[in-house]
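Need a sequence for this fold. Nothing fancy.
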């Protein structure tokens, strides 16, 4: 399974893209998680070589603009492809039930009816609840409420064909109520708004986010083998990877990844590394 980080930034970034990412199978099928804040998603997908006709599963974690608005452009483009006979099968969109109504209302207000007519037919919304399991990219994906303190939000655990476990916590810190989903994950995706030493400047806690330090302490405590940090500030883009890893390795002994926008890597079993030069 290949993971491509389409964007790694928080809601208000301008120098990088909002956090969203894509899992891709060897067969060229894609599972897209969140869609960024606008039509830049189309350019990013193109630059990453991810074809729209290979996207059949999209998960929207929650209603915030930086995760949601790109979906309207994907509905428009894929619906148009359906009209042209250039898209086979259905587009499955997973999100919680309250969000489905909001997305459909926005689509009806902003997208032509000749495209919206596919909603409920070839464009299928699937309401998720905690513990609900779906088969996506031949993996068992289990969704769970992350217990957000802002807007209702879901994360997921993915058990892949080889038994590897990857967990995504959305864009808020880990909550102990979700220990059963997170503990002993081979891979954990966790937000890290800024460096701990810069918490006073960026005030992550007021925004219901965490620092590199807290994310790494969580991963260490829960026995996570590989940790991916994202949804960050953008003032350190040129040296973000180096700075975040330097701080993170003080609190986490596993493999630490701080990807850049459009960076891809294989999700596979990796021996636990305890050095200082993770990615």
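Here you go.
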């Amino acid at each position: 399974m290949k993971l491509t980080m389409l964007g790694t930034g928080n809601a208000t970034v301008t120098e990088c893209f909002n956090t969203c990412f894509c899992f891709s199978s060897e067969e060229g099928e894609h599972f897209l998680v969140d869609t960024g804040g606008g039509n830049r998603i189309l350019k990013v997908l193109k630059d990453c070589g991810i074809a729209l006709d290979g996207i059949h599963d999209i998960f929207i974690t929650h209603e915030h603009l930086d995760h949601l608005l790109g979906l309207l452009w994907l509905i428009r483009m894929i619906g148009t492809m359906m009209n042209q006979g250039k898209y086979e099968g259905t587009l499955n969109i997973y999100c919680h039930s309250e969000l489905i109504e909001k997305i459909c209302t926005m689509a009806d207000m902003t997208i032509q009816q000749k495209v919206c007519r596919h909603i409920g037919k070839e464009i299928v919304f699937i309401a998720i609840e905690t513990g609900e399991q779906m088969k996506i990219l031949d993996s068992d994906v289990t969704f769970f409420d992350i217990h957000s303190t802002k807007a209702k939000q879901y994360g997921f655990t993915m058990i892949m064909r080889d038994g590897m476990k990857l967990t995504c916590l959305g864009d808020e810190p880990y909550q102990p109520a979700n220990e059963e989903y997170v503990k002993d994950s081979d891979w954990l995706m966790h937000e890290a708004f800024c460096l701990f030493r810069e918490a006073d400047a960026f005030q992550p806690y007021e925004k219901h986010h965490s620092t590199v330090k807290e994310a790494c302490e969580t991963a260490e405590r829960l026995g996570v083998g590989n940790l991916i940090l994202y949804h960050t500030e953008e003032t350190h883009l040129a040296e973000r990877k180096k700075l975040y890893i330097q701080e993170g390795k003080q609190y986490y002994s596993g493999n630490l990844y701080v990807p850049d926008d459009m960076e891809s890597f294989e999700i596979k079993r990796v021996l636990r590394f305890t050095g200082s030069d993770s990615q």
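For context: The two ends are 18 Å apart (CA to CA).
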